[in-house]
Cytochrome P450
Amino acid sequence: MVLRMVVGKRYFGGENLDDEKAQRCVKAVEEFMRLLGVFAVGDAIPWLRWFDFGGQEKAMKETAKELDSIIGEELEEHRKRKGLGEKDDEAQDFMDVMISLLDGRTIDGIDADTMIKSTVLGRDMSVFWESEGYSDVVIGGETTVISGATDSSNTVLMWTISLILKNPLVLEKVKDELDIHIGKEKCVSESNISSLTYLQAIVKESLRLYPPAPLSGPREFTENCTLRGYDIKKGTRLITNLWKIHTDSNIWEDPLEFKPERFLTTHKDIDIKGHHFELLPFGGGRRMCPGISFGLQMVHFILASFLHSFEILSSSPDPIDMTETFGLTNTKATPLDILIKPRLSLSCHESN
């Protein structure tokens, strides 16, 4: 969905997986997300960097080159279509808008191609955008288009469905809510989401137990300060353990238990948009995840549509493995295999 917004193509899922470029893109993005969480010895001991133990830096350079090549090819295709007049204003994607803003410009020695590819891939172009008068929100939203959005929604959905399958009563409750507010004669629409309070509570509880990134992004102190008796020097970096906060027994009753009901009762006033420090799956403050609104909207809609359209059950009688992997994103160590069957009639889908 994110890549479709950026370049107007769907690369994940469906028939497109047979396309060579789609396979290249899927492989490169997956490798990119894996390498983001890899520990490189050279980061801790710079003078050992040239040894490249484990070949991480070589893999990073190869992946960066592949992503640059893929985005470069898309950029050329977009320019050709624009030159032929094949796209109207309503059909424009993110890359089309970037081309219309930047094509032919060179700023501080940086050409348009470099600026467009860097922004799409999530490299640091904040200095350029600030010089052009764009806000922090816009900068954050654009510089994390692929690097920040590709993996998070998939991770949240994977953990949420796993938790629902491990808790059959929760599954029955959310299906009842879907049937009451939507029925079985039509599909879920975006306008239905606000009435699905139990489904939203499920997503909150999933984000509490399995935040997409268990550690926050680094924050740096811009001046010397004293905090609760501790002297902190300018330049000190802080990385917050979000998972620890989310499972603090001083805040949460039965902190390791999956209880969506808590967000309808004792913690009903806590949101996940950075206003309450008890729950910060997307961080907080000016530098919190800029895609939170779109990401939540997408997760709620996909989860509601999936659970409303299909009966789901585990493909194995064994307990679902909830082991996590080490990395930047909190991904599941083993794939989730499930069985599905339609809940709605074919005519319902055809009418929608």
The mean pLDDT is 82.
